[in-house]
Amino acid sequence: METKFYNTSELKRHPKNPRKIKDSKLDELCLSLEKNPEFFWSRPLIIDKEKTIWAGNSRFLASKKIGLKKVPCIMLDLPEEKLQEIMIRDNTNSGEWDSLLLNEWKVENLIEWGINIDSRKEQIDYNNEPGKKKAKKVKLCPHCGIEL
Q1: CATH of domain 3-90
Q2: Which residues of 100-129 are buried (b: 16+ CB within 10 A; e: fewer)?
Q3: 65: pLDDT confidence band, cut at 50, 70 and 90?
Q4: Domain spans of the chain, in order of start
């Protein structure tokens, strides 16, 4: 498997993509891709030989919104059943963010990386002192950091 760049005009979104992205979350993903294009290179779109996107539909939408003309893709020549499995696996959230996200990582970095922590600031144990509230588990996409 090799990652190649394809023109966004060549690609088609899968009509049965099971996950939708809301406007505010799409904006967050756009910002993430603009600030960190390396992320997109490490998570290319999965397409079939007809150039239909099986994994990465939200990244594709964000790439078009920010004006990218080419995006990284991996073309797979697999049976439809296997491509369906890949689509579902790509859209399944497995795991949750642990309190380590907010207590062990620099808040400034999390914000810069596009993780919305405003609603959780009161949960952060900035000094890791006993008796202070610990961060609660938060469900975020393991690939792009968007809260689910």
Answers
A1: 3.90.1530.10
A2: ebbbeeeeeebeebbbbbeebeebbbeeee
A3: very high
A4: 3-90, 93-148
